[in-house]
Amino acid sequence: MDASMNDEHDFYTRVWLYSRSDERVENGAAWLDEDYPGWYLRIDTTTLDIGNSYSCICGQLFVNNILNTSGFDYAKKAIFNRQTEKMAMLGFEVFNEAPEVEWGDKYEELLHSHEFYESQGTKVEYEILGVEWVKQINKRMDQYPGGI
Asked: What is the residue range of 130's domain?
């Protein structure tokens, strides 16, 4: 695959990732609900930064002062067995490599929108994931204000 085709594949994959951020985060939140009930009470949304290994969701939940490592790094090693793609599918991380996806007419409008051209890159993906995490946290706070 030549460079221009690779760039085009990466572009289309980013469109897919952005359009699926809400589903990824919803799945990640559901996983946390099951394995870590009340997790949302431990997240400070004012400092939440998905691109920072200390203040992202895993960074805030899995702080490990004994090992002197970030919560994200601890989760990546101890919980996800270094499977960053699994972490990305659950909205905890961006994809380092583009997953293979199939395209359809469904994304045609998004592919040609000016907003998308202006918002390429992992920084934007981190921001989008952060917004989706705040939505999931607020949803749980509204349903269970004092925790489960």
From this structure: 3-143
Report how far residue 135's alpha carbon sits from residue 26's, in angstroms, rounded to the nearest whole number.
9
- Determine the angle formed by the axes of helices 21-35 and 3-19, rounding to 10 degrees: 60
For residue 123, what pLDDT band results from cuts at 50, 70 and 90?
Answer: confident
Reading the block at residue 124, the tokens are 């934007």
Quick one: 57 exposed, middle or buried, by C-beta within 10 A (0-12, 13-18, 19+)? buried
- The whole-angstrom separation of Cα 90 and Cα 2 is 31
Domain count, the chain: 1
Is residue 134 a part of any domain in this protein?
A: yes
CB 53 within 8 Å of CB 73: yes
Provide the mean pLDDT of the chain.
77
Q: How far apart are CA 143 and CA 34, in angstroms?
A: 16
Q: Which residue do the tokens 């952005």 mark?
A: 18
The pLDDT tens digits of the residues spanning 65-83 come to 677 789 999 999 989 888 8
Q: Return d(Cα 39, Cα 19) in angstroms, integer.
A: 25
Q: Encoding tokens for residue 82?
A: 């270094």
